[in-house]
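I can't quite decide. Please look over this sequence plus structure tokens:

:::
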Amino acid sequence: MGNHTTVSAFLLLGFSSFRDLQDFLFVAIFFSHVTILAANVSIMVAIKLNHSLHTAMYYFLCGLSFSETCTTMVIIPRMLKDLLSDSKTISLPECATQMFFFFSLGANNCFILAAMSCDRYTAIHNPLHYPLLMTRKMCFQLMMASSVTGIVVSLCIVLIVFNLSFCDSSTIQHFFCDITPVVSLACDYTFFQKMVLLAFSAFVLVGSFVLIMISYVFIVSIVVKMPSAKGRYKAFSTCSSHLSVVCIHYGFAGFVYLRPKDMDSFREDMLMALTYTVLTPMLNPIVYSLRNKEMQIALGRVLGNVCRLFPHMISKRALNTS
């Protein structure tokens, strides 16, 4: 932290302006959070228990589900607490920690999505050698590279933001420590620092998106040359889930982090941020399960095992108490 910082804590304004909706928002966000955890954990368990899903595509999906679960854990529990509490203060170290984990995990999500597009290109371009090229070790290395890149970028962002002087208002017009609402409180925020933060955001969002688009350009160029319509349909169907998630993820994130900002946009950004911190992680598992028969079968087995396990546990407890 900079030695010149005079503010020791921030006030997260969050949804204070929606006082009549506080209870509704708490219930809606709470059940959304439970759904996110249940859906993503179900996907991870299904991939772990089904050997037929031990391929690169599902390893990446498992990594993405884990990363998105962690991302929501950074934001939503604190949001729920603030909805019920009159005290919405957050200390500078807590704010910096939240920002670091949120952006490192968010960047990790972007680069995993880029790795998934490369995986789809490899599967379509070279199906015979695909198992040899996209091994479990290669998937792990790509996910580790995504994680390390996210950590480095997030650390740079946090160091820039929290070495600013916060000497004016201490009220953050957001429900978590996002970049723009925090730096708007600084009294020595320069144009150069603004451009550096924008460059880091663009590196993550635009850089990973360009990699995805390059992969899909090559995929389309291969698929259109396939002789049979059935082969083209099968190739495109393997990419449809990933492409749907990419559109949802980058659409919301790009709108918030890459467009010009002004003070009047904070409320709009906060509502958009609610969408990509709550709705997107909930939609991703649904998209992958609805568009993927193998995943549907695996999730059905997991759900069947859980349904069989509960009556067994209840009957066992009843026998122990009798």
